[in-house]
Specification:
seven-stranded mixed beta sheet; membrane; KOBITO1-like; five-stranded mixed beta sheet; transmembrane; alpha/beta; Glycosyltransferase-like KOBITO 1
Length: about 525
Amino acid sequence: MTNHHLHHHLHAPLRSTPQSSSSSSSQTFTSKLLLLLTLLPLSLAALAFILQWRGGIPDPTTRWSPPGSHHLFPGMDASPLSSAVVHSTPSDCLSLGRSASPSFPYYQNWKFDSVSNLRPKICITTSTSAGLDQILPWMFYHKVIGATTFFLFVEGKAASPEVAKILESIPGVKVIYRTKQLEEQQANSRIWNETWLSSFFYKPCNYELFVKQSLNMEMAIVMARDAGMDWIIHLDTDELLHPAGAKEYSLRQLLLDVPRNVDMVIFPNYESSVERDDIKEPFTEVSMFKRNYDHVPKDTYFGMYKESTRGNPNYFLTYGNGKSAARIQDHLRPNGAHRWHNYMKTPNEVKFEEAAVLHYTYARFSDLTSRRDRCGCKPTKEDVKRCFMLEFDRSAFIVASTATKDEMLKWYHEHIVWDDKDIKLKLLRKGILTRIYAPMVIIQGLRESGVFSSVIASAPTALSKEKFLLTIDSSNSSRATASQSLPSRKIGRIGESKATIRKALEVDAAEFEEAAVPPLSPPGMDDNHLSVRV
């Protein structure tokens, strides 16, 4: 065989199997492609990790940080605020300190001023005598969920120099003191000449507070309008809004979704249901709440009514008709502490199906005596009716005024603490009781991030008594000027008779002079046949 033939013979098989060669190449290409697709995302992930670790890629949550913040938040070691030593901390601020590990980096600056341009703008007004241990967690929780401005009508501990100087240093906070000038100004309010609040006038304790809250709300409306607010809400400092049902846990988002033709929205209230008698900080120690009648199926509510009340006068210990938010608009007025109204129309009002206001009532054993000490009524069944609107408040006042500490503690367990695990589990399964953790997590996160300690550390030094009083006078005189735009029956009309004043303001407003809505108990078993509720 010639060399030519031998060469042809050796290589012929290779030429004679083109399909086998193609199949082998295809498998090699597929293997390489799979290897590339596997290694590429791993390589990118490793690169991203390295860059992030070295600071090459900024955290998206820092892009809204105010200038000069260096992407830090109070509570981190590099924060000068968190390392400052607080020498003049009030006694009620000891629990506001931070832990060693920051865990709430969502806001890079405790002043929360980097989101003030967002809409809608929401303000909260309150009348309080609480200390910083209650006001700061309450305020900054609401800042986190979207409130931007706070009108604080303060007295008692809240008006003391060491507390007031800290509150006044917080951006978006207006502190209004109960001075002689403020009382004289409110004495000229048109409210005194109208009928909707008249049944609460000149009565002690809760009735007096209810009138005071309404007068403060009237002033807050003017302040809110001057500040360019879109919504106003009246809350007590033992209440937290729970914006469930929104696309995110945001009060701003919740109100943004409200149709434009709606004037007011109602937050049904849930009531704290404590499981211990030694709670010190309700906002971070209470997670169980009794749901409002409006959020429970009617059959379940009345079917479980006996187990839910445990011998108390009503389903809730205190009120059950919620709180409301109102759009800032012309002729807006308060309608008691729980509602808003309008002098010239019947407002279009809706009720939230999921969102609520969490009411931490009698959550501490000490609440029994603190409520007692704020009221000078006699502990008799007849006299307490003059002082308290709700039956449970009346009973609690009598017990706190007449019983020994051991007797009070026994009564507290029987009527307030949920000791029976079987009943508790049954009501949780039925939906009467529910667990809500979001406020607890947010407030604990704020504390651990050093927000509260930073606020206290950055406040100016305490004012002298003289300077403090001058500040109060100045603050209230400026408020007085602003509030004169309120339609009043007396201001600027001293020379006119009451008859002339009434005639000038009677227009069509009388048609809308609905009586103030007091704190109301939820429906009882006697109301089982009713389908319409206040």
